[in-house]
Design a protein that fits this description.
Strand order of the largest sheet: 2-1-6-5-4-3
Low-confidence stretches: 109-131, 426-433
Number of domains: 3
Shape: rod-shaped
Largest sheet: 6 strands, antiparallel
Oligomer: single chain
Distance between the termini: 53 Å
Number of strands: 13
Number of helices: 8
Strand content: 15-25%
Order of helices and strands: HEEEEEEHHHEHEEHEEHHEE
Structural class: alpha+beta
Helix content: 40-55%
């Protein structure tokens, strides 16, 4: 059992740890993705700002050679419509991710340059031209660039621009991703260190909580083991004051122990009473046989036969009770209670049967006949002159009422008479009163058939025993 508790605790701890681990991994992944997305967006904004600054300078007429591209950590490329690099950041040694791998600008003639290589504009008319137009920026993607010997990852943005001279140019600018990588790596490191520690704390707390929760169960187990070893069914398991499932388990266990104690005590009383009842006819029969063996002329043959019959009836009653206690299910035959009552009353003096209509029930004909016979025997023993049997239907139930005109049964004893080996008249001899099993057998059979057997006051002042059974279904 200790291994079982350890296994339950281990499974609960493992399950809680796995659930928390899955939740932490999911949350950590979401945090990292969100952090990376935000940082990449910030890098794209910085790259766009740098590209717009260069594009603005070109749009207002600044020549390629006059652009200020001396930014150490943000590589910039200016590409013409033909894809030729016309300007680039100083100290740019290598670049990938923009689609233009060149890092050395190529000479190019344009409307902003007279083509003679001196960089002078031949147009001295002083004509004022409109500023060029800057297009919408677009994120190119991520790449790498080497500036002055340092290689880093960058996010590149492209901004198209049209110069005052009519040139179609594209400005590529990058923003470093070192901050993004650093923040993501730091967060990942914190998670890799913190998550195992958190999982260890969760496992430890779950282990302690389950141990405390299972402690009352261990107390119940120890007490049950002690009860089993001592065979003392009067003991009870402790009930914790938590009002939870464990408390309900302890309460149910105590109820089961109480029912088991009652059943065992009833079996002990039954065995003791049966032994006591059997002792009398056996002793009487033995005495008569011993006398007959010594003095054959003194043999009381009628008394021996009477004791033998009484012993046979008692054995039959005990066997029937044993079968009922073992849970024997009655047969499912179709029985006419009216006909069965007339059959049981046949040959009995002072017994009348009312109710000629057939009243059918499902059950064992033999057992139900035994019930009626026992009720009639009991009624005749106590009746002054007459016993009346009534068979009728009451709704869906079939009712058999056996009434006598005797002294009746006191209200305080109306349940006690159905107990085994109970006789209300202590002065009555066993030969006249029987063993006190008839009414007990009758009620047990009634209950096994899904019915009831109760006693009330009869109209004539005696006892009225009412057998109520479920009627036969159509």
């Amino acid at each position: 059992m200790s291994r079982l508790f350890a296994s339950v605790r281990a499974r609960a701890t493992l399950a809680a740890t796995l659930v928390v681990a899955v939740a932490l991994v999911a949350a950590g992944t979401a945090v990292l993705l969100s952090l990376r997305s935000n940082l990449l967006g910030e890098a794209g904004t910085q790259a766009e700002r740098s590209a717009r600054d260069v594009a603005t300078s070109l749009a207002v007429g600044t020549r390629y050679t006059e652009l200020n591209l001396d930014d150490d950590d943000r590589p910039v490329q200016v590409v013409d419509e033909a894809g030729t690099l016309v300007a680039a950041s100083e100290d740019l040694e290598r670049i990938t991710g923009t689609g233009v791998d060149a890092v050395t600008p190529q000479p190019s003639a344009s409307p902003s340059d007279d083509g003679d290589g001196d960089g002078d504009d031949d147009d001295d008319s002083g004509e004022s031209l409109e500023a060029g137009e800057i297009g919408e920026p677009a994120t190119v993607g991520d790449g790498t660039a080497t500036v002055d010997g340092d290689t880093e990852d960058y996010r590149f943005v492209a901004v198209p621009v049209e110069t005052r001279g009519g040139d179609q140019l594209t400005v590529y600018a990058g923003a470093p991703l070192s901050a993004e990588h650093g923040a993501v790596n730091t967060a990942l490191t914190v998670m890799l260190i913190g998550f195992p520690l958190l999982l260890a704390v969760v496992a430890w707390v779950t282990w302690l909580v389950t141990r405390r929760a299972l402690r009352p169960v261990e107390g119940i187990r120890r007490e049950m083991a002690a009860i089993t070893a001592s065979e003392d069914l009067a003991r009870r398991v402790p009930v914790p004051g938590t009002h939870d499932e464990v408390a309900r388990l302890a309460t149910t266990t105590n109820q089961t122990l109480a029912a088991l104690e009652s059943s065992v005590e009833r079996q002990r009383r039954f065995v003791a009473d049966a032994s006591h009842e059997l002792r009398s006819p056996i002793a009487s029969l033995r005495t008569q046989l011993e006398v007959a063996a010594a003095h054959p002329e003194l043999l009381d043959l009628d008394g021996a036969v009477e004791d033998t019959v009484r012993l046979q009836r008692l054995a039959a009653d005990l066997l029937l009770l044993a079968r009922l206690d073992a849970g024997e299910r009655p047969a499912d035959a179709r029985v006419d209670l009216a006909a069965l009552a007339r059959e049981a009353a046949g040959g009995r003096t002072g017994v009348s049967v009312r109710g000629d209509a057939a009243v059918h029930v499902a059950g064992s004909r033999g057992q139900l006949g035994r019930v009626l016979a026992n009720l009639l025997d009991n009624a005749q023993r106590h009746a002054r002159s007459a016993v009346e049997v009534t068979v009728r239907r009451d709704g869906e139930a079939a009712v058999v009422a056996v009434a006598d005109d005797g002294e009746g049964v006191p209200a305080a004893d109306r349940e006690r008479i159905f107990e085994r080996f109970v006789r209300l008249d202590a002065a009555r001899s066993r030969d006249d009163g029987g063993a006190g099993l008839g009414l007990a057998i009758a009620r047990d059979v009634a209950v096994r058939h899904g019915g009831t057997l109760t006693v009330h006051d009869a109209p004539a002042g005696g006892a009225l025993f009412e057998l109520r059974l479920p009627g036969e279904r159509a």
